[in-house]
Amino acid sequence: MSPELDVAVVGAGIAGLTTAHELRRAGLTVRVFEELPYVGGRMRSFRHDGYVVDEGAEQLPERGYRATWELLARLGVTDREVPRIGKGLGVWRDGRAHPGLCDAAALVTGAGLSPRARLDLARFLAWTARYRGRFDIDHPERTPVGARTVASLARGYHRELHDYLLQPVVGGSFGWDTARSAAAPLIGLMQTAGPVSGWRTYHDGMDLPARRLAEHLDVTTGTPVHEVVDDGREVRLRTPAGSVTARAAVLAVPAPVAARLHPGAPQDERDFLTASTFTPNLKVSCLLDRPLAPPSPRPLYALFTPDPEEDLLAGIMIDHARHPGRAPAGAGLLTLVADPRRIPELRGADPQETARRLIRAAARYVPGLPGAVRDHFVHSFTHALPEATPPALAHRPRFAARPARRVEYAGDWLTLCPASEAAVRSGALAAARVLSRVHPSPTAAATRAAAPAPRSEKP
Q1: At 317, which CATH number?
Q2: Which of 47, 28, 36 is nearest to 12 (CA)?
């Protein structure tokens, strides 16, 4: 009996949907299986009483995100749908917000750094500029810093570069521990994304590309996949409704989940899968009755709270400053990001108490916050972002050199780069690897091209 599908994709995040999109364009029959009742994965948004709430966090640089911009163009996304943010990042130090974090102007304004630290920042930026092109986000192991951690690299500079720049950025954005996480992916992403002044956002929620992709794909939500087996002829997916067979499968899920689903993975895959750890994440979205924000000399859309200043919060995202459409007129929307050091404790507590603790802590930076909260939502991801540890970097070359197989992978963890651009690139790469083995028949391809696009559905 012939397999039911050409390709089965597990996971309806941006990596899985991109993979399915590319394979369907090539004429293959593809179905996406998603355990959750919605698409988007870590790029999910939801709507509530006029608020648009992102469960993750996403910025879209005007440069460097080539694969993402090409995908958005194919989906018909217009410039109006991805407006410039127009606000900056700040860091809290000595009782006040300092704007200009991750901005070239920090060399002049300081952005929380002392004059001596600014000199070392200039030295650090000059060093990374000298090696521009050597920090490739597709090959993080091929860089001048090797497997050095962020903390190790920072020891060659003034301590403030670690405490008031690198640590708050990687801790608040990725949940990384600077002593565990490799510096190469961070520097590559910094060079790719460019200055904050050129960053954009999705005006109607970060799930915009996922929703557009799913409109034209066969997506089955609410369907967990328990195991994926390559029997030497085809791939079988075990689901609650029974087995599904395919000529190939793509696991577009975090590495720890992929390792569990595919226990028969060859050793050159398993070593990297096992080494590719993820950081957890916990956030509280606060729906406000007025647009509060941390006081700052210049408008901010995010304030990072470094470890020396704060032990419960990693940062505050001012979502209504990111785009005014995220909250009703006259209202506000903030996201409180938990400090990575406290996430295990917070995730084990009652969600309501966790929210109350973070809101009380945030009142130090946003006066009047507790009294302005109309409603709140707690978001928690076990596998939030790839951790990019030195062991993962060490195993990546062998994984990248493996031959194309019936079971492939997609996700930002493939390049240890915590960004949607890495997820989109991984989806295109997974599709290319599948197409090197699985080819549509000319008749079938013509029939599929003429057929109406499938719609997302629940089983």
Answers
A1: 3.50.50.60
A2: 36
